[in-house]
């Protein structure tokens, strides 16, 4: 009797050990899949350098302004001149979520929008503005002129964050 109980306990313990283990390799803690940008974007701003960042606690969002090499070089020079030709800026806005690894911290969740401002390649040209929203991100069509003008002015007025 005792040997059958021991055998049963051994089988139960072994089955718990086998079913409790996962065979796949877990993702690194630094991977934040929900924050990935999915959709048909003209550029990948996450491959660019960050210029500055801000949060909007009322809306529960966080945003980062990125720039291509031309834009970053210009903004970091401290120049008050307009962005040079072919500069591209992108504001990525995410919903915030609690960081599961750091109590009280917030990290990006799903992207809310991506806005691009492309400086013209000719002196007489105007900046081109495009906004992407939804899941997957898709370009917003038929934006009113006043909203576009305000968004462009807001984006190009941002200054680089001072980094130690």
Description:
The chain is of the alpha+beta class and 164 residues long. The protein has one domain. The protein has helices spanning 2-19, 69-76, 145-157; strands at residues 49-56, 61-67, 88-98, 106-118, 128-133, 138-139. Strand 1 and strand 2 (61-67) form a beta hairpin. The N and C termini lie far apart (72 Å). Mean pLDDT is 86; it is low at 6-10 and 12-23.
Secondary-structure blueprint:
Blueprint: H1 2-19, E1 49-56, E2 61-67, H2 69-76, E3 88-98, E4 106-118, E5 128-133, E6 138-139, H3 145-157
Antiparallel strand pairs: 1-2, 2-3, 3-4, 4-5, 5-6
Structural class: alpha+beta
How many distinct domains?
1
Helical amount among residues, as a percent range? 10-25%
Low-confidence stretches: 6-10, 12-23
SSE topology string: HEEHEEEEH
User: Strand portion, in percent?
Assistant: 25-35%
- Major beta sheet, specifics? 6 strands, antiparallel
Task: Sum up the overall morphology in one term.
Answer: globular
Mean pLDDT: 86
State the helix count: 3
Q: Largest sheet, order of strands side by side?
A: 1-2-3-4-5-6
Instruction: Report the strand count.
Output: 6
The end-to-end span amounts to 72 Å
Give me the Rg, rounded. 24 Å
């Amino acid at each position: 009797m005792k040997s059958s109980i021991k055998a049963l306990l051994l089988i139960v313990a072994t089955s718990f050990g086998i079913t409790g283990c996962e065979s796949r390799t877990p993702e690194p803690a630094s991977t934040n899949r929900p924050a990935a940008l999915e959709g048909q974007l003209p550029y990948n701003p996450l491959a660019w350098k960050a210029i500055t960042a801000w949060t909007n606690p009322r809306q529960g969002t966080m945003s980062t302004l990125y720039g291509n090499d031309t834009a970053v070089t210009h903004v970091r020079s401290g120049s008050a001149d307009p962005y040079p030709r072919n500069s591209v800026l992108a504001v990525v806005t995410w919903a915030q979520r609690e960081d599961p690894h750091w109590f009280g911290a917030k990290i990006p969740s799903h992207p809310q929008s991506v806005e691009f401002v492309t400086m013209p390649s000719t002196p007489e040209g105007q900046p081109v503005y495009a906004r992407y929203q939804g899941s997957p991100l898709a370009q917003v069509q038929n934006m009113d002129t006043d909203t576009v003008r305000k968004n462009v002015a807001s984006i190009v007025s941002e200054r680089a964050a001072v980094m130690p």
